[in-house]
Design a protein that fits this description.
- The protein is α+β, with helices and mostly antiparallel strands.
- 21% of the residues lie in helices and 35% in strands.
- It is built from four helices and twelve strands; from the N terminus they run αββββαββββββββαα.
- Strands 1, 2, 3, 4, 5, 6, 7, 8, 9, 10, 11 and 12 form a twelve-stranded mixed sheet that branches.
- Helix 1 packs antiparallel against helix 3 and helix 1 packs antiparallel against helix 4.
């Protein structure tokens, strides 16, 4: 192989790495915080490893207890843009709870909705063809007399179950539950966790939260819709760029003759 061809393939490889990795790292997400007191807004960053971002949308529930419903149109995206046309709506019975906010992650967990029975959250016109969902659940704020607490979380037919930590509503660390459920009050899920992740979803998001049993209520802190980047850009880099560079090289060689 000639030195010129080697240089061409070296350039092609560099472009593939830059374009492919850049595309994979450019994913955006839409983040929502269930607020009963502390709010996230645009400046605070929170989320599990890999999805820790700013520009959260606050889902306000102002009264202490009752039946909640509300909606958000055109929510903020993590890059500061707006998801025009996207709509979030929610409905549940319960009350809001407020913990002591410290770090930004603790702030996101500090306010939560204490779900009685079940809660339904719907997001329409999501700007992603494929997406992942991360759902965050606060630690139990009722102490050991109500431990364990937890329940089931479902998104578009994907089911997870979660047993909450018993730390009086204080954020400790991100621990993911991969348990498929269903939640059992008599045989609680172990180990305990603070969030679940459901991957490869598409279309309208229907998120359902269900308490495991009376006094096993989920304390819902928020959720994120994470974009799964389209593979097209990377495939173009792999299959399209090297041939184009080779054609250019051959033209140069021909013109020199």
């Amino acid at each position: 192989m000639s030195a010129a061809i080697k240089r061409t393939w070296g350039v092609a490889l560099a472009v593939i790495i830059t374009v492919g990795w850049g595309s994979a790292g450019s994913a955006t997400m839409i983040s929502f915080n269930a607020t009963g007191g502390s709010t996230m807004g645009t400046s605070h960053t929170a989320g599990a490893p890999g999805v820790n971002v700013a520009n959260w949308n606050d889902m306000a529930a102002s009264t202490w207890a009752g039946t909640y419903s509300g909606s958000i149109d055109d929510p903020l995206v993590s890059d500061g843009s707006t998801a025009t046309g996207t709509n979030l709506s929610w409905s549940f019975n319960g009350h809001n709870g407020v913990g002591a906010a410290g770090s930004d992650d603790a702030r996101m967990y500090a306010s939560a909705w204490d779900v009685w029975g079940s809660a339904t959250i719907t997001v329409t016109d999501i700007p992603y063809s494929v997406y992942n969902v991360h759902v965050y659940v606060q630690d139990s704020a009722l102490g050991a007399t109500h431990d364990p607490r937890g329940g089931g979380i479902a998104a578009n037919g994907v089911n997870r179950a979660l047993n909450m930590f018993n730390n009086s509503g204080e954020f400790v660390q991100y621990f993911e539950s991969t348990d498929l459920g269903p939640y059992s009050a008599t045989s609680p899920i172990s180990p305990k966790a603070s969030y679940v992740r459901m991957s490869g979803l598409n279309g309208t998001l229907t998120l359902t939260l269900s308490e495991g049993a009376p006094q096993h209520r989920l304390r819902f802190a928020g959720f994120q819709i994470e974009e799964v980047p389209e593979p097209g850009t990377f495939l173009l880099a792999v299959f399209g760029i090297p041939p184009l560079l080779l054609v250019r090289l051959r033209r140069r060689v021909r013109d020199r003759r």
